[in-house]
């Protein structure tokens, strides 16, 4: 591959990254896009592939490279990263890398620099797989069940949380009560809270789907909020970010999602539940709403999901929940339908 070709490829990469930034993509998204496409470009350079002329075989070779190279570790709180002890890159990480490359080549096609995209686009189809059979992406989707703490495990987590500062306890309460993503939680401002109605406004610009919503919170969380606001006023009387740092180095600075991840990780270790993550409270809240009989569309609106299919991935009813529901609603019907199987032939 000539030096001129390398420079052309680098120019297209920088142009695409700048475009994502100008389109208003979140800074972390732009960083992830840049990291992913540059890693692919480095692989193409190493293997003497022309990045701008890549074919499906190039993409397959890159996937093989990703699966075989030693993992680089990552943030344990990020679901898409491979664990430091994992022998290969996680399935979700592979799919994430492919998505970045596909978006880059979509751009090249739109600019008229290529005729086709070398990364095939998988089609989802119906839940039962009746549509688009065989139209799969290069990496299959693995749907792992989320970890949901049992009642005993949750009480242990709450007991460990009692020693946390009031700010952290309030953040934990809001995360569960309102099923907040960590970005939404850390971006809350004082003006987003309506204590009189016990409502929180989740602003569109802070959400993953760019759709705002208003959700209620419980009386217990309201009591924690009252105590915390007194503490916050001692730090700062200005309106703005709700959750402020108390550390001397970052005094009164807004809490970042990375800080919150560290708080939750430490809490999980202290409670003896290392699987606890910032997303656990969201999963648990949505599952609890399903347990008490909320309609799936109501849960989707509460969670801020565009599709109920996404909501279904979040809700994880335990075997005990399903057994109790089965016993209460369907056991008699199933027994009647299968009764004849117990008859002994004469």
From TrEMBL:
InterPro entries (alphabetical): CB, DNA_brk_join_enz, Integrase-like_cat_sf, Integrase_catalytic, Integrase_recombinase_N, Tyrosine_recombinase_XerCD
Record key words, sorted: Chromosome partition, DNA integration, DNA recombination, DNA-binding
Classification via Gene3D superfamilies: 1.10.150.130, Intergrase catalytic core
KW DNA-binding (keyword) present: yes
One GO term (biological process): DNA recombination
Gene Ontology terms for molecular function: DNA binding
Any one Pfam family match given in the protein's UniProt record, by short name: Phage_integrase
Highest taxon, organism lineage: Bacteria
Tyr recombinase domain location: 144-327
Occurrences of domain Core-binding (CB) (ranges): 7-109
Stored PANTHER family: PHAGE INTEGRASE-RELATED, TYROSINE RECOMBINASE XERC
Protein name: Site-specific integrase
